[in-house]
Amino acid sequence: MSKISINADRLLGRLRELGEIGRDPSGHLTRLAASDADKLGRDTFIRWVQTAGLDVRVDRLGNIFGIWGELSPDRPGPLLVGSHIDTVIDAGKLDGCYGVLAGLEVIQTLMESGKVPDFPIAVAAFTNEEGVRFAPDMMGSAVFAGALSADAALGAFDTNGSTLGEELERIGYAGAEPVGFFRPRAYLELHIEQGPVLEREGVDIGVVEGVQGISWQRITVEGQANHAGTTPMSMRRDAGVAAARITTFLDELANAGAGALVATVGCINFSPNAVNVVPGKVSLTVDMRSPDLTILKSAETRLAGYLDRLSGQTGCAISSERLAMTDPVLFDKDLVRTIERVAAARGLSSRRMTSGAGHDAQLLADIAPTAMIFVPSVGGISHSPKEHTPDDHLVHGANVLLETVQSLSLA
Amino acid sequence: MSKISINADRLLGRLRELGEIGRDPSGHLTRLAASDADKLGRDTFIRWVQTAGLDVRVDRLGNIFGIWGELSPDRPGPLLVGSHIDTVIDAGKLDGCYGVLAGLEVIQTLMESGKVPDFPIAVAAFTNEEGVRFAPDMMGSAVFAGALSADAALGAFDTNGSTLGEELERIGYAGAEPVGFFRPRAYLELHIEQGPVLEREGVDIGVVEGVQGISWQRITVEGQANHAGTTPMSMRRDAGVAAARITTFLDELANAGAGALVATVGCINFSPNAVNVVPGKVSLTVDMRSPDLTILKSAETRLAGYLDRLSGQTGCAISSERLAMTDPVLFDKDLVRTIERVAAARGLSSRRMTSGAGHDAQLLADIAPTAMIFVPSVGGISHSPKEHTPDDHLVHGANVLLETVQSLSLA
Known about the structure:
The structure is a homodimer.
Chain A: H1 8-19, H2 36-51, E1 55-58, E2 64-68, E3 79-84, H3 97-112, E4 121-126, H4 139-144, H5 150-154, H6 164-171, E5 186-192, H7 197-201, E6 205-211, E7 213-222, E8 226-227, H8 239-255, E9 262-264, E10 268-271, E11 277-278, E12 281-290, H9 293-314, E13 317-326, E14 329-330, H10 333-345, E15 350-355, H11 360-364, E16 370-375, H12 391-409
Parallel strand pairs in A: 3-4, 3-5, 5-16, 6-15
Antiparallel strand pairs in A: 1-2, 2-4, 6-14, 6-16, 7-12, 7-13, 8-11, 9-12, 10-12
């Protein structure tokens, strides 16, 4: 099999061009799902898909597919590559768009090389991955994979009271295809890491074995607000001290987890929050993640046991409320090995890793063999204008995707 | 010396009546310094002082004195009793008013009993003890005791841009007397405890030996905001975890202090304060108090050392800023012993204690032998409509003040 490579200038040029759509006068990039800016981004993407000679299909939920080859109800569906092109507020230009435009680039390169794959290959841009305007996130892929009903998704409201369905109609992206009109034979998603590991370790390619499970809780500690001067230490029920003990407990629990658990207290609110008053009530959030469901459940159990003991020790009432729970997702072992082999064959260093953030791929994994490819994020920064990956890393990642697609689809 | 007692009905009735002045339509009591409500409270107090037959004097700062007997520049000044009648927002009716009205009651009782003291006795209502509208607090007593200039105090602005001087003129309480127009031979202040100790221990009378010194600091921890899912524990600089460690360090330091130190982290703010972001920056306040300056300074030094070590351990930049520092005040040992003896003679239990809150007495202690008498606060609650002391405790406290004044002034 002769080695081919993607057209780096075309890919990087399209990333730059799409990254200019949705910038406000002060230069901030925002393309929320089903907004006017999203429409302009979608129009541009579809123009490129058509230029490449692909068949464009849009489903009821606004998911866009560019398909090379004929879909047939009698045969397994296409090999699908993709991601999303909606953004957060004040975003970078790579999150999502990189996977979509590299997917298109891979197909276009294969078409131009004269290769004929054994089955259709398609690129997807899923609607509302970010979940900033309409909840939940990863919405388009969730409906596509049958994890959420189309009606529920289309009925989701934004803060202005508009539904996603109304907004898709308005921007002309309530498509004709039923959601899930084909079932992919496999799904590959290329993405920036959005974390610091690859850059810190000097590794070119992250071979993603799965997505961490996420447990979110809100803990409320009710003690007694008291005068900070007149209340002896022995007579206090200080909700702030209890919250501090919870925070250090979680930090120690996660640090003892040998990389298999992260835990974060990201949000805390004291009441009354005054310099001379012992905090009477504190609420804090706990974000725990692990690629291993057993470890995540065990961390939840250990936290619950600690809260019980702490309540007894401090006299504070401590309650917790679940905000979210998603199970870890394991990607396809064969695909992971293929990506690893392809990276090595191109002379790129790689490491296996788990995604700490959520991606469309975790929904697709329910209905098709799935894996992801990561490239380094400078400083681990994402969801920010500072999001950056050097061009050579972007090109390396797209070539790994290209060769993985080739090795799966060309005999 | 025959045992006399104060007129309980008169004292309790006046406390109730003054406690109705400054209530808004929904029942909340607020008489901020030099407000219209404060004017009405002052007018009422002066009417009672005049009814009792005392000479009313008001100084430039609005401090009100009711004097029994003739002041003479050739002799030591009067024995002074008092407190303040301004309140916080949504206050109880006892904080300050109890000491002022009990002081008047003591003098009126002595006058009615036909006793003739060896020297003048006076009751004081000091301006702006609470410091809610004009800073600093304990303002009237601070100027009276020479710790603050009259011009600085009168020039203090409220949030509407009015000065205390203008407001005192407006309500008719910019008096004729120079501030400090007499120097008291001693000062006694009766007050509710505003803490839980007396009630919890079932003790009738707190004999106050002094006022705690106060150290306020704001600590700022600067780490690195990161994605809570994609950032391994080993690559974090979590400002929230560092803040939690500071909080538990202070709690342990104070708990090891055997009652000689209290420490409170009352106020904390995380940035960005989001469930899925490692806190990048945290500010927190530290309130430390001790009756012993050596212990307070040592606690500050130990905290500073801990912050240095923690910064090294966590990679967070940690800085601290002093917000306030007042030295502890020691009251007069002879007065303390006298109060203790008087309480015992009236069959009341007592314990020595340190005031955790600030009072006019700590300023007066600079210019005259001074002590305070505390009565129990139900639940330790103050600065709240829930502030409460049972009537019998209020009467006991006033009688201890009466007999202390008697034993000091009547041969």
